[in-house]
Design goal:
632 residues; alpha+beta; 4-stranded antiparallel β-sheet; 12% strand
Length: 632
Amino acid sequence: MQLVMIETNGNQNYIFSSPRLRENIGASAQLTWLEDWTQEVLDTTTIPAAVARAFPEGAPDLPWVSRSSGKVIFLADSVDSAREVIGRVTRIAHSRAPGIDVTGVYVEMDSVYVDDEDLRRVHMAANEHALDRPPAGARFSQMPFLVRAQDSSLPAAPPFDKKKVDDEATADLSMAYSLPSRVKRYHAAKARKDLVDRALADHGSLWKEHPYRDNTDQLGELLVRDLRNLEKLFDTDPEFGDDRLSKVAVVHIDGNGVGAIMSHLKEAKQKVPENVFSEATGVSQGDDDALRRFLLQINTRLAGAMETAFYSAWAQVSLWSAKDDELRGRRVEDHGYRAVPVVPVILGGDDATVITEGTYALPFTAAFLEAFEHETAADPLLSELGNRDGHMTAGAGIAVVRHAFPFHIAYDLAETLIKKAKQVGKAADANAYCSTLTFHALFDSTLLDDEALIDSYSSFTERPYRFVTKDHDAPGNMTWHEACRLTALFTGVGKVLPDKSTDPATWRIEYVSDPTQRVPFPKTRAARIRQYMSEAANAPEPAAQPAPEAPVDDDVEKGINKGTAPEKSPGERVKDEWDAILGSSDEDLVALAKALGNPDALFDLLELADLLPVSYLQDQLTSTADIQEAGE
């Protein structure tokens, strides 16, 4: 028996090889087709029947071992069968998705039943093969007499054969696109339409609170099936004079501890109670086929949790956007609600990458993480593999950039951010993992070193933020709930109501619906404090004092003799600015400053104030009030 693994490689490079959103969508859809291609080939061979004969009658899902986004593992009855499937699947990939990088390897098993050692060896074979083979780009070598494509350095390809494809976009016919771009663009429209149709058909209940919940056609338009309209939404909105879509974001989310589970399936299997395991897999933990069935169940359930989390967050963003339209006084009766562009680039396994509008990127991510935790807690199997609260967790990095910023650079920044987030979320043992998110708003056109950029302000930021339950809270980075609470105060959307408690963190905060009645923290002063904090963090070390016998500069000596007052340090200036707020005659402003506690959070609050919409802050304040009332 052979264990075969086929996978896609360089997914991010493939997706972001073009700056065009349409091609990003088309490429991401193609990455999900690997399982279908493999199943298509297997259905035309004798492999499923041959493998099934080696197992007890009724064993499910044969010959599959693992099915996840961009990677499949299955059993084959011989070396020839393994080579045949790999060859046919890779040829399908090259013809249907030119430019995609698909490879396959196989190893011989000691038994018909999969174990940890088999999985380790097949992954090792894949790593060795990756070092020996030429890159996928070598298939498209540039030749001097070929016309170069306008979208890349690849050679241009002619339009599709009208006898086979008669619905290629008119605009694409006259453009010198490369072959990979033509195929991506052709499939993008259908991929987006299928995504919206699934949202309405399979997850329609998530939109039950939206004003368009009873009108599927209007809701479908709001979710934007049409790619031309979707691309327009990433530009400014001249109709309303609104420039909020000038900011876009790349959101990258990755599960915590999933790699460890996959690398140590035997140990993970033993964590699951016998009754839960047998109910999920149909066999006992001691069964020879238990590991294969366990892995398949993890793949299926984890992918389902990620998909539901995405649709749930998308629905929440649409609702917040509609509320903000009403709060801004837009002429909804004339123009309808404004859709918010949300585009999943990668969605599968424990990994998700989403492009969305900058103002809703943080709320989207928070909603995604909360929904993911809820879905995994509700699943009997996944909840046993999670933390002590009975759910799995994830880390998220959000890169907010200008609308025309290259997405592949933004993705690299989001990947660096997620590493920072996961360092905090996984700081404790696996039972205490928590979800985390961090962000960076990058509006400079130059980005030389992601790590250096983030480390430059690491000493005076509260990021990454933690998602934790109150019962299990512990000292550490600020929680996301607290960050939203402080942002509501900072912007004046929330008003603090001091009580007899000496702890301002326990004071009530009420939502201020009338913008004219809001008391925000003075932004000019906050910007000065932020500048002083930055100067203090980056100030050079104090110079060593000269020895008594060393010569003293005459000018310096004269200055000292004249009593020149030493200039205040940046830290002292921060204190002066904060004391000025506390000494204000405005009682509401003083209460606000006391509720903020100290100036440490101002560095983050200046950016959060621009990245968190009023509707989201209102929801956060409402949920806090409900919790307080329930506690009382």
